[in-house]
Amino acid sequence: MKKNVPLTIESITDADEKECRVSSAKQIEAILREIAESGTNAALYYNSKRAFIMTTILDLDEDGLWVEAAHSATENHHIGESSKITLVSSHNQVKVQFVVEAANLVTYDGRPALFLPLPTSLYRLQRREYFRLSLSQSEHLRCLINTAKPKGENVPDDNAPLETTVVEFEVPAADISGGGIGLVCMEGEFDLVPGETYTDCQIDLPDIGPIHVSITIKNIIPLSTSRSGKVLQRAGCEFKDIDGQTSGKLQRFITDKQRLMAMSGLMP
Q1: How far apart are the two ends of the chain, measured CA to CA in Å?
Q2: In sequence order, what E strands does the chain have?
Q3: Is the pLDDT score of 117 beyond 90?
Q4: Cα 168 to chain center, whole Å?
Q5: Taken in order 247, 249, 250, 255, is the CA torsion positive or negative?
Q6: What are the structural domain ranges in the chain?
Q7: CB atoms within 10 A of CB 8
Q8: Would you state the CATH architecture of domain 14-125?
Q9: pLDDT above 70 coverage of the chain, percent
């Protein structure tokens, strides 16, 4: 059974730039031609408010592609005035996304269409989906993180190696999945940096045992503000290069928790 790929705009990460970016003109043309021939739906986003229309790719050549125009003349006018056009579609069940600077209202096969220049690059964005298990405070699941800090305030010699000391701290978890973990802390309590990768972190899974993982901080978002003005934050973390044994332990922990939740739901 084919899944529906959500045609929403994805934020492009540094990892996406390395792993998902397609810059070969021939490959770009081949991907877009297959999308056109399959009649796959696409979403065309325009202007700073991210308004969009649903469309399909009608045809393409080495210069650009024709897509169905909007039914509204007003929408077509706004699209034509936009300096940033994002097209999102799918290719072999993988999200495809690219940006161009213009879309011109033209005629294709006797009907209104939009012509977009062929993009210089596009992204094939395949996200692995995981069940996220929410955790209560009483479960006391924590991630032990080691990070290096400069030792002392001053370095006597610019050419001398910087002395560091390892700082260890525990951060409570709000949720966990096979792909990552959500950590919660007060703003300023821990120095978690978005984009930073922390290696050899330890998570003790009750009834399973400890696992050692590397995590990358993907984002930090505020959850709530206390009366004292302190902001509670959630750090979304992705597991990096997780091995099969660790993945198995994680899945067993999550499955056991799901089973207990289901049993509790059946109890009177």
Answers
A1: 36
A2: 21-22, 41-46, 51-60, 64-68, 85-91, 94-100, 104-108, 111-117, 122-125, 133-134, 142-150, 164-176, 180-186, 197-205, 209-225, 231-240
A3: yes
A4: 28
A5: positive
A6: 14-125, 133-262
A7: 12
A8: Roll (2.30)
A9: 87
Tell me the two tokens of residue 14.
């540094």
Q: Note the pLDDT tens digit of each residue in 151-185.
A: 555 555 555 555 555 567 889 999 998 889 999 98
Q: Which two tokens stand for residue 180?
A: 């990552």
Strands 180-186 and 164-176: what pairing?
antiparallel
CA distance 77 to 256: 55
Return the sign of the alpha-carbon dihedral for residues 37, 59, 126, 223.
Answer: negative
Instruction: Report which DSSP code applies to 250.
Output: H
CA 21 vs. chain centroid, Å, equals 14
Q: What are the φ and ψ backbone dihedral angles of 133, each rounded to 5 degrees?
A: -95, 115
- pTM here is 0.51
What is the rounded CA–CA span in Å between residue 179 and residue 169?
22
Return the residue matching tokens 């990892």: 15
Instruction: Give the homologous superfamily in CATH for domain 133-262.
Output: predicted glycosyltransferase like domains (2.40.10.220)
